[in-house]
Amino acid sequence: MNNILERVAYLRGLSDGLALESDTKESKLILEMIEVMTEMAESIEELSEEMMEIDDYVELIDEDLDELEDFIYDFDGDEEEKDFDFEEIECPYCGEIIAIDKDLFEEGECEKEMVCPNCSETFIVDNDACDE
User: Fold this and answer.
1) Percent of the chain with pLDDT over 90
2) Which helix (H) or strand (E) is 129 found in, with range?
């Protein structure tokens, strides 16, 4: 982007070398065009810098998302996605349907204390595997 700013500065130097006086119509036009080009070049440079910052930020978000996907899905890209086994239960307080991963229960554990994400009430969930 500096190339544009350098080129506009070169044009400004040429106009200074011509000793354009602002009393003729042509001189006024040329000087105003150089001024507009200077403002445009500065704006382009600012936008370019902001865009580079946004690119860096998006790259960081993408890396964080990759890590999150690996954590949630236990997935490296070559394997199949992890198969979750969910059971839907109803909160006894507010009636909200909640999906619970059956892997949440430890081996031999028949009950688990849960907090409803909707009403924040605590209740006990039975492990269906204990009934078998």
Assistant:
1) 36
2) none
Q: How far apart are CA 19 and CA 51, in angstroms?
A: 38
With 60 as the cut, is the pLDDT of residue 132 above it? no
Question: pLDDT of 28-61, one tens digit each?
Answer: 888 899 999 999 999 999 999 999 999 999 999 9
- Going from N- to C-terminal start, the domains of the chain cover 2-73, 86-131
Provide the Cα torsion 61, 68, 115, 90; round to 10°.
100
Q: Which residues of 6-45 are buried (b: 16+ CB within 10 A; e: fewer)?
A: eebeeeeeeeeeeebeeeeeeeeebbeebeebbeebeeee
Q: What is the DSSP letter of 107?
A: T
Which pLDDT does position 129 carry in this prediction? 58
Q: What are the tens digits of pLDDT across the range 101-118?
A: 777 767 767 788 888 988
Angular region, 24: left φ>0, alpha ψ -120 to 50, beta rest: beta
Residue of 18, 40, 44 lying closest to 30 (CA atoms): 18
Q: Which H/E stretch holds residue 102?
A: none
